[in-house]
Amino acid sequence: MIVLGFESSCDETSVSVTKDGQCVLSNVVLSQIDIHKAFGGVVPEIASREHVKGITVVLDQAMKEAGVRANDIDLVAVTQGPGLIGSLLTGINAAKAFAYANDIPIVGVHHIAGHIYANQIEQDLQFPLICLVVSGGHTELLYMKEHYHFEKLGETQDDAVGEAYDKVARVLGLGYPGGPIIDRLAVSGKATYKMPKVETKRAYDFSYSGLKSHVINTLNTLKMKGETIRKADMVRSFQEAAIEQLIEKSILAVDKHQAKMFVVAGGVAANSHLRKRVYEEFKDVVVSMPAMQYCTDNAAMMGIAGFYQYQRFGLESSMSLNGDSRLPLK
To answer: What are the residue boundaries of the structural domains of the chain, listed by start?
Structure first.
């Protein structure tokens, strides 16, 4: 089965062609990062306009690179949500137009399911598994007993880990996006600043608001005292505390549910310290983290997820398919 995938949930316009739920024939991504850097974050109105400008160009390139024509496509998969509603609608309308014009079934796919199934590109998922979802908008632990079965064990009670990275980078004047910048700078620093130990009511929940606020308060105190702010040491201290929380909660979940596999999904899966800690701590289970190009938003992961969604449920979406900025994962 050849799947044409569309992804436009935030600030990447992407179209892919995948085969049989694992093989990536093409994966074209048009990023808007340079455009939004000037604003310190994604501006929804600008993101929507850029998607409109780029979607047909990206579609043509993906089809050309894969060496396929419209009559070769068996299924269209598109991100339905969550995400920025204007951005989502651009991808959805393009996908529906292609599916309708060529009489091809279409499925709306959850964005987080896509991130999870990015791991299927590298190796087959083994069940039961625990998945740690880490991105700018999500920090969750999920249990999967089979394909397309998602049971949420815990989630962030406030800020997502990626959001905390961006805010810490902003107050330190490091730029946007904060995650990659902090990750690079932390390599040259030492964890000399004390960070709080985060506690949550539920074992598998996360919290990053307190850690973020502690960094901000520490910076303000140092400025008031006229002391030098060692930025590399500050971000190293922050990063180690942020990642340690992810590791500790994940270990609990893997042990409790006797998982065969531990999977990391989402943009923060590209973080070098997280990847290092995962390989250090999870030696008794199979570990899977996407290749770097599949960690951030891309259409290949949506095509793979759409394949398994269609295989399990056999249901296609109607032409009334609409975007849902708060779409639940189920």
So the answer is: 2-117+294-313, 126-288
